[in-house]
Amino acid sequence: MALMWQGYKLLAAPGGKYWRGTAEVKVGSERAPGMLCQNFGLCKIAMPISADDRSMPPLTEIIGTLFEPPRRGGDEILLTILTRASLFTLQEAVVGFLLGGMLGFILGVVFAHSSLLERGLLPYVVASQTVPLLAIAPMVVIWLGGNWFSVAIIAAYLTFFPVTINTLRGLLSPQPTAVELMRSYAATPWQVLWKLRVPAALPYIFTALKVSATASVVGAIIGELPSGIADGLGRAILNFNQYYATGPEKLWASILIASLAGMAFFFVIIILEKVFIHHRPAEI
Question: Which pTM value belongs to this model?
Answer without folding.
Answer: 0.82
